[in-house]
Amino acid sequence: MSEREDGPRLSPGAFAGVRLHIVTGKGGTGKTTVAAALALALAAGGGRVLLVEVEGRQGVASLLGLPPLSAEERPVASAPGGGRVLALAADAEAALLEYLEMFYGIRRAGQALTRLGAVDFATSIAPGLRDVLLTGKATEAVGRREGGRRRGEGPFHYDAVVMDAPPTGRIGRFLNVTSEVAGLARVGPVRGHADKVTEALRSERTLVHFVSLLEEMPAQETRDGVAEIAALGLNPGAVVVNMARPPLLPEADLSSAAEGRLDREELAAGLEAAGLEDPAGLAASLAGEVDAHARRVLMERRIRSELEELGRPLLDLPLVADGVDLAALEGLARHLADQGVRR
């Protein structure tokens, strides 16, 4: 993990009472990996957590080495202390059928609409409807009670829900469901459903977390995304700096390289003493690598400082060099737990 000791950190109990964790980030930052690791961390100690994928990419199944997920919730991983993570791939068509059955008892009619292609047609001409159905699936799971009891009665079925959401470039529109359906339905059950989803998304029990790398473009999208989410009345959560790499050289050597003071003759002498061939040429190549490393470290520190200015807690996850599988996810979950991530 990063060597950084200062800057905003996760306060004790920061996630206490948070029921829905929405994870977004620029493509390529490891958003799905972070969402899965977060779900495992929240399930530790006997928790039950639902991981919801909404983009249809089957990224969670791929990470865990499982067959493609369906719209049905199923166990996918165990967490320390008897915890469980369940997952589903939210699907607009399945969510609409469930919605029709739940509120109108007309699932058969919905199935007929599906066969006629009406669902695809409706969600194609009104993308906001698709987003309402997908976000509604997650918010329904958030409020679900044990044994199907009424709202406000009995314990929650899930201790937390984690949503692997769309990238930062689309997250505002995806979560701004009331605005998206305003032109489609100003009154009636669809608008009512959208209003309930919006209420849940804007609740203090919902946080939108951002995954970034210490690179210019992901960091800029993170800054823009935090501002957009706050402007929509939603609650920005933590910024997760993913694939963090520690400096490979002592601070003094990094400073020397960054300032162009690396003694190449001394480096060549050392290589010659080690009996290596062409010590001068090898020293020049190594010096170039050290210079590039020093520049990268300085750039990453500057970007981290800019992310700290957002005032959001910063969490660090290390680069996993050998690929991400369940064992690696469990390790990342421990890193999050060590930084205070818990229910």
From TrEMBL:
Residues 20-180 form the ArsA/GET3 Anion-transporting ATPase-like domain. Pfam families: ArsA_ATPase. It comes from the Bacteria. GO terms for molecular function: ATP binding; ATP hydrolysis activity. InterPro entries: ArsA/GET3_ATPase-like (IPR025723), ATPase_ArsA/GET3 (IPR016300), P-loop_NTPase (IPR027417). This is ArsA/GET3 Anion-transporting ATPase-like domain-containing protein. It comes from Nocardiopsis algeriensis.
